[in-house]
Design brief:
With 161 residues, the chain is of the alpha+beta class. It has one domain: Glutaredoxin. The protein is 48% helix and 14% strand. It is built from six helices and four strands; from the N terminus they run ααβααβαββα. It has a four-stranded mixed β-sheet with strand order 2-1-3-4, sandwiched between helices. β3 and β4 form a beta hairpin.
Length: 161
Amino acid sequence: MRWLIIALLVTACGVTAWLARSGSIGGSKSTEEKASVTWLESYPDALAKAKASGRPILADFTGSDWCDWCARLKDEVFSTKTFKEWAEANVVLLELDYPQVKPQSKELQKQNDDLAKKFNVEGFPMILLLNAEGVKLGQIGYEPGGPKTWIAALKTASGMK
């Protein structure tokens, strides 16, 4: 079942990437200074950190080694200094990865599959903002325009200030 879902998502991601490269849909090139951001992989750890810090969880459902839109979001937003500074002050970062090549433990695969079912993940990238109890506050995907535009869209989608 996991591979069927991934196959469907790969197809959808490929079509949208082709459209972006062909100019049918737009993106933006970021000139932002790059920065490294640390993401948790454990959902229970993210919940605990969210409770302790009072910050919501930004959960990134991604196909890190095959999804063009996921790579674009990482490059244009998640790896920028602007996003890093904002994230450190406002959210707990959780990466839920569905790789095709990169190895993953069975436990991590099960956790990520269970969360994809729980939150009805139908495409990548899918970013959820969750409270410390794991309740969905908002949802967003790739948005062109760089980190400031993306953060503003996330705030709008989730009611975040």
